[in-house]
């Protein structure tokens, strides 16, 4: 697969922004994959430095970073990813952002399914049986409880929780949905993937829209398969990126509320 060149009439088009250099905007038009991939790469790259409790204070990348450094690294991840989103923002202009009541329903149902499936620990049962149990430990979430880590600093604890909500509810839904549904699911359908209307799919795209999120959420394989398949249905039904992002945001918000109430920080 090759990228379109500047003279190609199929080059991704979007309104010019007066806040970004013209040369950068031309680069985005000539290489549309940057619009969808750059924020996700930044998010994952910085996130590789995050320490986890299961790794005994070391990050997944083995950098030996202490668990207490998690808030700083998470803040850096949110800041740098937000900058990446702003750099590619003009490329989002061609998508439909209408939000329907159906998206709200999918977000609520999705949250119930995600929590319920994760609580059943089905992934642990299956992977342990086939000898892949250690994979769950390496893929475990940070489980960082700011109220436990900062017991005498409630302002700090709630401040970090607000930042965590910003990342979960506002930022992650945008970068994941644009990466998965704007790039991956269209990329597997055609060399001219940027020309495929949003919401148009084939069997390969549906498979990619399920398998890729499972690989991105190895500790929640089954929950990811169910949830992302549900949002794929929503995407095909409404053809609106706004619906997909909103449903994702609703699920993440309800998940955060559930964690705050239940204390199941291993879900975050």
- Low-confidence regions: 1-10, 56-61
Helix content percent band: 55-70%
Coarse morphology? globular
Mean pLDDT: 87
What order do the SSEs take from the amino end to the carboxyl end, as H and E? HHHHHHHHHHH
- Based on secondary structure, the structural category is mainly alpha
Number of domain modules = 1
Instruction: Figure out the total of helices.
Output: 11
Q: Give the percentage of residues in beta strands.
A: under 5%
- Strands, count: 0
Largest sheet: number of strands, sense, barrel closure:
none
Rg over CA atoms: 19 Å
Q: What distance separates the N and C termini?
A: 37 Å
Can you tell me about this structure?
It is globular, with a radius of gyration of 19 Å. The model is unreliable at 1-10 and 56-61 (pLDDT under 50). Helix 8 (154-187) packs antiparallel against helix 11 (241-262) and helix 10 (221-238) runs antiparallel to helix 11. Helices cover 63% and strands 0% of the residues. With 268 residues, it is an all-alpha fold. It has one domain (22-267).
């Amino acid at each position: 697969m090759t990228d379109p060149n500047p003279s190609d009439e199929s080059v991704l088009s979007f309104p010019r922004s007066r806040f970004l250099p013209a040369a950068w905007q031309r680069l985005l038009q000539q290489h549309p994959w940057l619009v969808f991939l750059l924020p996700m790469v930044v998010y994952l790259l910085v996130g590789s430095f995050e320490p986890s409790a299961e790794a005994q204070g070391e990050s997944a990348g083995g950098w030996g970073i202490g668990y207490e450094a998690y808030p700083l690294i998470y803040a850096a991840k949110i800041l740098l990813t937000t900058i990446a989103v702003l750099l590619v923002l003009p490329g989002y202009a061609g998508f439909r952002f209408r939000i329907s009541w159906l998206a709200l329903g999918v977000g609520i149902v999705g949250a119930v399914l995600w929590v319920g499936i994760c609580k059943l620990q089905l992934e642990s049962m299956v992977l342990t049986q086939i000898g892949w149990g250690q994979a769950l430990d390496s893929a475990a979430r940070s489980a960082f409880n700011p109220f436990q880590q900062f017991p005498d600093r409630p302002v700090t604890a709630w401040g970090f929780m607000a930042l965590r909500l910003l990342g979960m509810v506002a930022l992650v839904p945008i970068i994941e949905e644009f990466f998965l549904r704007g790039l991956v699911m269209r990329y597997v359908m055609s060399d001219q993937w940027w020309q495929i209307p949003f919401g148009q799919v084939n069997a390969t795209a549906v498979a990619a829209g399920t398998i890729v999120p499972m690989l991105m959420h190895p500790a929640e394989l089954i929950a990811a398969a169910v949830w992302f398949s549900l949002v794929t249905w929503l995407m095909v039904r409404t053809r609106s990126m706004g619906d997909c992002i909103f449903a994702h945001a609703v699920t993440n918000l309800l998940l955060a509320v559930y964690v705050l109430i239940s204390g199941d920080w291993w879900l975050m």
